[in-house]
Amino acid sequence: MTQPQADAGPDAGGRTLARLLRSFPRPPYWLYRVLQIVPVVFLIITINFFLLRLAPGDIADVMAGEAGAYSVEFTEKLRQDFGLDRPLLTQYVTYVGKVLQLDLGWSHRNAQTVLSLVLERLSATAVLVLTAIFIAAVLGSALGTIAALTRSRFVDSLISAIATMGFATPLFWLGLMLIVVFSVQLQWLPSSGMYEIGSRATGWDAVTERIRHLALPVACLAAYYLAIYTRLMRTNVSELKHQDFVRTARAKGASPARTVFRHILPNAMLGLITLTGLQFGALFSGSVTIEAVFGWPGLGQLALSAVTARDYNLLLGILFISSLFVLLVNLVTDLSYAWLDPRVELSQ
Amino acid sequence: MTFSWNTASLAVDASTDAAPGIVHAAHEVAPSKSVLDVQGLTTAFRAAGGWRDVVKGIGFSVGENETVAIVGESGSGKSVTALSVMRLLDGSSSRSAGKILLQGKDLLSLSERRMQQIRGNDVAMIFQEPMSTLNPVLSIGAQIGEALLLHRNLSRDAIKAETLRLLDRVRIPSARQRFDEYPHQLSGGMRQRVVIAMALACQPKLLIADEPTTALDVTIQAEILDLVAEVQRDIRSSVLFITHDMGVVAEIADRTIVMLDGRIVEHGRTAELFKAPQHVYTRRLLAAVPRLGSMEGLQRPARFPTVDPITGALGPTAEVVDTVAAAHPPLLEVRNLVMRFRSAGGLLTKAQGRVHAVENVSFIVNAGETLALVGESGCGKSTTGRSIVGLAKPNAGQVLIEGTDVLAGPAAATRPLRNQIQMIFQDPYGSLNPRMNVGDAIAEPIIVHRHARKSEARDEAVELLRLVGLSPDMAARYPHEFSGGQRQRVCIARALALKPRLIIADEAVSALDVSIKAQVVNLLLDLQESLKTAFLFISHDIAVVERVSHRIAVMYRGEIVEIGPRSAVLGNPQHPYTRQLLAAVPNPDPDLRRAHSLRAPSEPVSTVRPLDYVPPERAYRQVAPDHFVHAEPDETALAA
Amino acid sequence: MIRAARRFLRSGPAAVVGSVILLVVLGAAIGAPLLAPNDPLDIVSMPFVWPGDDATVPLGTDMLGRDIYSGIVHGARVSLEIGFLAGIVTTIVGLIIGAAAGYFGGWIDQTVMRISELFQIMPSLLLTIAIVAVMGSSISNIVFGIAVTGWPQVARLVRAETFRIRSGDFVQAARVMGFAHSRILFRHVLPNVLAPAVVMVSIVAGSAILTESALAFLGLGNPNLVTWGSMIGAGREVLRSEWYMTAIPGAAIFITVLGLSLVGNGLNGLLNPRRNVAA
After folding, report:
1. What's domain C2-278's architecture?
2. Interface pTM (ipTM) of the complex?
3. Given A6, A23, A263, which is nearest B135 (Cβ)?
4. Does domain A120-302 correspond to CATH entry 3.30.70.600?
5. What pLDDT digit, counting tens, does each position of A103-120 carry?
6. By CB neighbour count within 10 A (0-12 exposed, 13-18 middle, 19+ buried), where does B264 fall?
7. Residue of C nearest to A41 (CA)
């Protein structure tokens, strides 16, 4: 229930601005939603700024990078660029301005701009994360639905128990154990990297090689999200199956299968879409340790090397770009939710 | 075919109700040929440690083109009976035994696959909650068409054409446009029409309607009842109507079955059953049913008559002694109360309209008097009550208690005055803190405002429990350990703790079963007599209002359109809306059955007005002493 | 209290198993110096002794000959300390923020919700890594990093509960009776919100233990402490041959977090008043 907005009548002068803003035509939902991300981006930049200020030394030291070619002149120039002699607010504005132009600085260790480094590695992480979430969503929905609909308490308990265990498993440890079993003992799958070193495979062979390398990290990353999806789907479906409209469908003569596929699942899927958006940030987190375990050349690996090199600028650049990525995924899931759920008016 | 009776239930009934000679004597019944014939139906649910019978060996039949009503209070097993016939109960937690013959076929012996072919085709069902009965993510057209898709071998185009025809038949305007709309875009009454269209799709021989009008406003209810009656004539089907409302039964049923605790206690032709109820329970039920017009000749509120538990004889209708004490200034005066807020619209979006929830409402309540605010959902009656106690902040107007405006000035200064007014709510469970025992809940205001010591407050709480008819040892119990009626008594006791002179009862008896409702109403009248408490009785139920009130104010679209003494407003209604409202109230008397007339569906009363709407200046015309009515009826109101 | 405990134990074998696990881990953490007198950093035996081969080092030794059993027992201290500190800090912060947002609504609510969305968008482990990398890897910094990313989850839950309860009839009734905001908040709203918040402590503690172990595994933990995560990190070097060095500490993490989540489930059932109604 929303709090009714008091309206004191035409003489309330202080509301002129709000009134003026309201007098514009109603923006479509998607535009409204896109505009909503602006303050979020600003807040992310702000957090980055303060983390940089917390780092040992000033921004110039950090930007120059302790491990890089450290030159006094260069650092001084940076100090001037960032106006470190000027007040905090000015520094902040300068920083925001630079980030908004996607100028995330220079990584000396890698002799590359932070932006190009991050973009280079983003695709590897994206492949890992997107494959994992796809598998987790499909398999999790199926398992959750079965758990909710089964008459067998044993099957339900088993699926619930597996989900509970999924929440308690450290992902990186699961990865290491999978390596022991599938790479060391059984020697079925490779344990590290995206492809064989010096591989010249082409065409179909290249594809299978890639899939073989993906298998373990994806299985590992998907495991945790499988647990989340299974639990959510089980809750959704067991609530929905007692809904009046499901009983109505049966009263019309719909078969149990039709009731599930036509009436329960479309409603249950809506909750899943929201979850996917919300969990995407967490999934990115998971990929950091997984990449470390499987030597997957993605953003997580890059972040760890940045930590080792004390390249804070690169580290925060990764944080910024990956947050933007998650933000975009959230935008897409929100818009698709609005498109799929007739109750959300796209014009609202 | 005549009724088949389960002899076991007969014997048990006779012993439990100890009503010599009055065991469900069947009024003369002989339906020509039965569509549904239920014999010895027993339905049990899995409970802790075994099976618990909910329906206990009942038998009845429904003849061709006949409407049979099953009435009973919550827990009587009437809905379970309906679901058993449809075989819609969960097979793992329930089981049914006996015979359910639909046109001679025993439904209980059929396979689930065979049953699927029968559901929606030979027998269809309409449910109570039109909001939740429809799938929110499927279009109206798809949901109606589904029954055709399942049972008729038709092309897509033919299904669409037939669906449009069904929408027309249930009088949904602009069917072609509605076809692609979703349930949330329709009002409650419209949704129920869609549900009826869905049930009609395959022209079933039997239509089961489970409380189909309970969630609707009384004017919409009248429309839906008319529609059901017409549709039944049209497709020549039989109707099994499940309801708790004796008024609805009198209105629609050819024959009536009364259920209590899983058994049929009485059945017969509706007119005869109402005229000469045989079973004690039926008598009690009928005595507790508020009926409009039963108060003619009485000036003051009157208690529901009591029924002798043994003989079933009716006690007298006890009129309350005169408690009204008019004074200047009056106990409560509300002056020009206005409550508006924007509908939707945030910082970047333009508001589409303004809700005029309460518009220029004025009235007084005298000490010891009951003023009823009646009207349909969304008319502003609850908002008015909430504004008086400070739960809603009005935009303009005054609330004067004994002449002092409690909206102006600091809250702390007016607190003692505002404590004179307390409130009880519709949902007694929700209005008690689940983590506080009822003794503490009643003692809390005494400790906070009257600075009593804890032990004194507890003693007083116990006294209050006794006053509302509960036993003192219940003080240590928690809300979930009480029944609905008992909880409402606890809420009343708590409201009395500050010794208020006025209690606002916001739909306080609406959620209670008929017989419990009568008991709580009688309690309120007892309290009025002994404590001289005044009531602002907010309710949509005009029949109850007639019994409890001295004066009545009718609200429509945020305004009071008519106000006056109870006998004047109900006996000589002036405003067209008052008349429409009174005409729509079903009368629990089959002889006074309304003629079923088909009307175009009305859209619900809305208080949302365009942003540039300026409320017109209102003047009231005096009809009789104290009886006032809007001089000019609302421009959009009921031109017909 | 005793009745509640009995009901908790009766709520299913899972809750009992969870409680037993937690008690064992807690006992190990408290009694570490007695149970495992060896300092986990001391070299006590030959390197690479497999579990079971030598009764003096029941869980074997690592590549330097340090006692793995000692490491597990002493590691329980770090894990539980961080788990409970982070669980309690995060829950209290989330409880205060969420209750304020839910009770007062309006712009306070709007602001809190926007900020909590922000923290759900920023990949939490990356943010924690950045915080720990920048501020140093002391236990308090790790707890801070976990709390910064964890509070929105608690705040959102508490806000939703508070909102539901605030608009409920019994709070309205309290307002009609003229009770002060503080009385309504502390006597009527918070007792009803506390139950889900208590359950959150165990859930947050579990995820804090997982986060801490991930940090230690990645080499971002305190290098002077032996923790389960750092033991896995060390064992990884010899994963192909001496995999027990990785398997044992990982199993300790898994069992501890599982215990916490089972207890959380049990508490959830116990503290849910709606379940009490049905009972």
Report:
1. Orthogonal Bundle (1.10)
2. 0.83
3. A263
4. no
5. 777 776 677 788 888 888
6. buried
7. C118
